[in-house]
Amino acid sequence: MDVLDSQINELAEEETWTGYLFPSLQGETPYVTRDTIRNWFQKLASKAGLPERIEGEWPSPQLCRRFWYDTYTAVLEGVDEIAAEQGSSDPQVVMQNYLSESRSRRVRREFMRELLDEAFGEKT
Questions:
Q1: Could you please report the per-residue DSSP string of 9-65?
Q2: Measured CA distances, 91 to 2, 66, 67, 100 (Å)
Q3: Residues 9, 89: Cα–Cα separation, whole Å
Q4: Which of 15, 16, 20, 124 sits at a 20 to 30 Å CA gap from 76?
Q5: Nearest 5°: phi and psi at 81?
Q6: Which keywords does UniProt give here (predicted)?
């Protein structure tokens, strides 16, 4: 979030900023198109040595988003035991009724931090 805030602050200081996070310095539109972002992503995936297909799909921002949400919501599996102790078969009950919103968010973030550390081999 700090990097995003810094980028927005830097862009906002420019008189010509149009409000787009990925402004285009060329062409007729003041922003970079979805196809351009997708092309950048494909180049990044190639540079990173990703396989051409992951589970039958080309690497894409949507595939990464799906991974993020699948992994982020997997934290619910981690509270299955707690739910069972409370007499509930649904871990959502624990997340919604027994944890504060901020604690629930923190649990999910800590879980993601561990998984990303495993995936990338670095502290996040």
A1: HHHHTSTT--S-SSB-SSSSSSB--HHHHHHHHHHHHHHTT--S-BTTB---HHHHH
A2: 32, 21, 21, 14
A3: 46
A4: 124
A5: -65, -40
A6: DNA recombination
pLDDT digits (tens, 9 = 90+) for 95-121: 677 667 777 778 778 877 887 777 776
The per-residue pLDDT for range 47-84, each reduced to its tens digit, is 888 888 888 888 888 887 777 777 766 766 667 776 77
- Calpha distance 32→22 (Å, rounded): 6
Look up tokens 């007499």; give the residue: 87
d(CA 16, CA 122): 38
The overall pTM is greater than 0.70: no
What is d(CA 34, CA 62) in angstroms, rounded to the nearest whole number? 12
